[in-house]
Write a structure and sequence with these properties.
heterotrimer, A mainly alpha (259), B mainly alpha (120), C mainly alpha (462), A: 259 residues, mainly alpha, Four Helix Bundle (Hemerythrin (Met), subunit A), two-stranded antiparallel sheet, 10 helices, 64% helix, C: 462 residues, two-stranded antiparallel ribbon, 15 helices, 58% helix, globular, oxidoreductase (chain C), ubiquinone (chain C), NADH_UbQ_OxRdtase_su1_CS (chain C), NAD (chain C)
Chain lengths: 259, 120, 462
């Protein structure tokens, strides 16, 4: 069985390969953390396509399936941990960090080159023929649930650890039970205040916005109708302008109808 | 037909061509009337609220949901080949799988019990 | 449960060689025919989208006792086309704070990805196309169904990125909601399909259709169908799960800042995604292009062959479309915590249990849990299956009894136990409750105590 790629595969590789490299470079050099995550997603998807091109159907699809989800999580972690518009600060916080990094990277590079250079490949079993005979997914299943049972079962322990870690890091137990919608509504009725809810913000003939208070029957604005967040931010406007405009319109209409 | 994935690329190209063409055309054909208010973020008519330093963050409790998603994602990935090859694998694989599911379920039950699935 | 058993035996045992490769034969399909078929799918989807938008507005109109669009063309059929043209001529506004690159590619991702998944849907039997015998299916792979899930996973990026890149609050919330929705319901969706794979022994769509020749999988995998239909509504952001674009809460959600053709791309993506998930449901549970039982038996399966499949496929697809519209016409949007609770506390564990149950039934059918069968109405049931049904029934009874008694005990406890609750901040320092004491949520914050007269607004608003 020949290992030489076909022309189609070669073309695919030479188009997508550089794109994958670009994506991974983007992961390292992008200023905005979200762009970096996107670069990673691109690289992972292209890797998946490469696997598929080499007849590893299941592996390729799983690569895309898992990594799109996982990178999405990364994306969320960026939003959670760093902030929505976060970008890299170029300030060095750890002393001598860059030098240490350079040394370590060179060391790792040397190690990998030495290790990979001395690898001898056994005769490949030939994914194509396995796909024909047993089927790609079935063959994979036979390996997972046959030869690698132990690894498979240990994976579950890993998953438990992940869940525990997430609980420890992110879970904050509530002291008591918070009020839910039902409780609030019960309380409202029991107190007999604003049973039907608070008044909505002002809707005027020429204006409609949440920062404008509504008017009470006697014509005074009611601060209850505006969100307290806006009040705290000092963003509440007065309705006088709109009331005047309304009066003007009402006057015109009256004039027109009496004419 | 040699490779079953080639048609996917054809559809991808068609879809992308259509999307790019229609968006591009509308950029050329559509009007452009600059207005400062138009370029502001939309917030129901009020002055756009000032953005927090660094853009503001999302609550960390979301992390737990995200992590659980990854855990179950991996579990379901093991279930797919298991289901496909079920008849060939035999009883032993079924027992293995039940053990695996129970183990992951322990984590799930723990998170539930501790209130990690409450969303408030 | 016994109905399940009866039908489970209608499914033919799978090919013993363990082949999960596609059964559709593409050997006589040159590339140019593939291109023609791809174009056909593309046009089919675009036309279906134009029609379904009109259909939705008309049907909802009827449900709400108003006519709906009826001006452009016969019955207003050209309304969606006119709307598309109009959005082409609209100004394309980009907010000042937006991330230019991502803001541009997000709608393109959505609009591109939605087309691809349809390639693996079997839309009919084998037909003669320009002198070549070819199945009415663009392509098929051993992992076809997973491919749909993977592509959907890429497609969701369009929505999340649109939300993030707009540089505005409501879209960001919409994008986050969309991602939470995706991660909560995608798992249940994947798990619900596992039961189908157990019966079909393959993830290739042509094999799955082949395995449904005698019995559609909606019968043996009825619970999976139920879960799938719920999750597909959640995954496509349709009412009652359209939290990512809930207009009463966050304006338009992720596409608030989009206008013109870019907005239209999201619109297109949403509707084509509806077709994709509905087509997958058709393929997995309703026999895809197979004729309905009864009609299938006429004239030696004549209606299962060739172009007829396209008819049945389209009919089944539109049944789902009607269901989508019906749901939208009759259900209100769920609350966010209810949505998450339903996904994580019911759908996922229930589907997992269901998958294990199906696996055991399948094992019993294969004779792994002991030989021996009982004859009923001319069919043989393995003893093991019957025993399983018994175990499940007893288990359900026990759980039900436990549940009831626990609820009763809780009620009794609530009725007579004197509530001794402590205010944790009574002494100025937070104090944990002693055993037997319950904690009273501090009602008065420092600010509230300071300004006693000011009404606590959140309390009133609810």
């Amino acid at each position: 069985m020949s290992n030489a790629p076909g022309t189609g595969e070669a073309v695919l590789f030479w188009i997508l390969g550089p794109l994958a490299v670009l994506g991974s470079l983007g992961l390292i050099f992008a200023k905005k953390a979200v762009h970096a995550a996107l670069g990673m997603a691109l690289t992972m998807i292209i890797l998946g396509i490469f696997y598929i091109a080499q007849d590893a159907h299941f592996l390729g699809v799983i690569q895309v399936f898992v990594y799109t989800g996982a990178v999405m999580m990364l994306f969320l972690f960026v939003l959670m941990l760093v902030g929505v518009d976060s970008s890299d600060g170029l300030l060095e916080t750890l002393k001598g960090q860059r030098l240490a990094t350079a040394v370590l990277v060179l060391g790792l590079g040397g190690l990998l080159t030495a290790a990979l250079g001395s690898v001898t490949y056994p005769e490949p079993a030939g994914v194509k023929s396995i796909n024909e005979e047993t089927g790609n997914v079935s063959a994979m299943a036979e390996l997972i649930f046959g030869r690698y049972v132990w690894v498979f079962e240990v994976t579950s322990a890993l998953l438990i650890t992940a869940a525990l870690g997430a609980m420890v890091l992110a879970h904050r137990e509530r002291l008591g039970k918070g009020r839910n919608q039902r409780d609030w509504s019960k309380r409202r009725v029991l107190r007999g205040e604003y049973v039907a809810g608070l008044p909505a913000p002002g809707v005027y003939a020429r204006h409609n916005a949440v920062d404008t208070p509504a008017l009470l029957p006697d014509g005074t604005p009611t601060p209850l109708s505006v969100s307290r967040v806006l009040t705290a931010r000092d963003q509440v406007t007065t309705p006088e302008r709109y009331v005047e405009a309304e009066d003007r319109i009402a006057g015109q209409i009256e004039e027109d109808s009496s004419r | 037909m040699s490779n079953p994935y080639v048609p996917l690329f054809i559809l991808l190209a068609l879809g992308f061509g259509f999307a790019a063409l229609s968006v591009g055309t509308s950029l050329v054909v559509g009007p452009k009337r600059y207005n400062r208010a138009k370029a502001e973020a939309y917030e129901c008519g009020i002055q756009p609220s000032p953005r927090a330093e660094g853009g503001g963050r999302v609550p960390i409790k979301y992390f737990l949901t995200a992590m659980l998603f990854i855990i179950f994602d991996i579990e379901s990935i093991f279930l797919f080949p298991f289901a496909v090859a079920f008849d060939q694998l035999g009883l032993f694989a079924l027992v293995e799988m039940v053990l695996f599911i129970i183990t992951v379920f322990v984590a799930y039950a723990y998170v539930w019990k501790r209130g990690g699935l409450e969303w408030d | 449960m016994s109905a399940l058993l009866t039908v489970a035996h209608g499914i033919p045992a799978l090919l013993a060689e363990g082949k999960d490769n596609p059964s559709a034969d593409f050997s006589d399909t040159p590339l140019w025919i593939t291109v023609i078929k791809a174009l056909f799918i593309f046009v089919y989807l675009l036309v279906s989208t134009l029609i379904v938008i009109w259909f939705e507005r008309r049907v909802i109109g009827r449900m709400q006792q108003r006519p709906g669009p009826n001006r452009n063309g016969p019955f207003g059929l050209l309304q969606s086309l006119a709307d598309g043209m109009k959005s082409m001529l609209k100004e394309d506004v980009r907010p000042k704070a937006a991330d230019a690159l991502v803001f541009t590619i997000a709608p393109l991702i959505t609009a591109t990805m939605c087309f691809i998944a349809f390639a693996i849907m079997p839309m009919g039997g084998e037909v003669n196309l320009f002198g070549h015998r070819t199945p009415l299916q663009l392509t098929d792979t051993p992992v076809a169904v997973l491919l749909v899930l993977a592509i959907a996973g890429v497609g969701i990026y369009g929505i999340v990125l649109a939300g993030w890149s707009s540089g505005s609050t409501y879209p960001l919330l919409g994008g986050l909601r969309a991602s939470a929705q995706m991660i909560s319901y995608e798992i249940a969706m994947g798990l619900s399909l596992v039961a189908v794979f157990l019966y079909s022994g393959s993830m290739s769509t042509s094999q799955i259709i082949g395995a449904q020749k005698n019995l559609w999988f909606i019968v043996p995998a009825f619970f999976s169908f139920f879960v799938y239909v719920i999750t597909m509504t959640g995954e496509t952001n349709r009412l009652p799960f359209d939290l990512a674009e809930g207009e009463g809460e966050i304006v338009g959600g992720y596409f608030t800042e989009y206008s013109g053709m870019r907005f239209a791309m999201f619109f297109l993506g949403e509707y084509i995604n509806m077709f994709t998930v509905a087509a997958l449901a058709t393929t997995m549970f309703l026999g895809g292009p197979l004729a309905p039982p009864g009609i299938a038996a006429i004239n030696d399966g004549m209606f299962n062959e060739g172009w007829w499949g396209l008819l049945w496929f389209t009919i089944k697809l539109w049944l789902f479309m009607f269901m989508f519209v019906w749901l939208r016409g009759s259900l209100p949007r769920v609350r966010y915590d209810q949505f998450m609770k339903f996904g994580w506390k019911f759908l996922i564990p229930a589907t997992l249990v269901w998958v294990v149950l199906v696996a055991f039934f399948r094992g019993a059918q294969n004779g792994w849990l002991g030989e021996g069968g009982v004859n009923f109405f001319g069919r043989t049931f393995p003893v093991a299956s019957l025993a399983l049904v018994g175990v499940v029934a007893v288990g359900a009874l026990i759980v039900g009894w436990w549940w009831d008694s626990r609820a009763a005990a809780k009620e009794a406890a609530a009725a007579d136990a004197p509530q001794s609750s402590i205010d944790p901040f009574a002494g100025g320092h937070p104090v944990p409750p002693l055993p037997g004491q319950t904690l009273a949520e501090p009602t008065r914050t420092a600010a509230a105590i300071r300004s006693e007269a000011v009404t606590d607004k959140e309390a009133i608003r609810g």
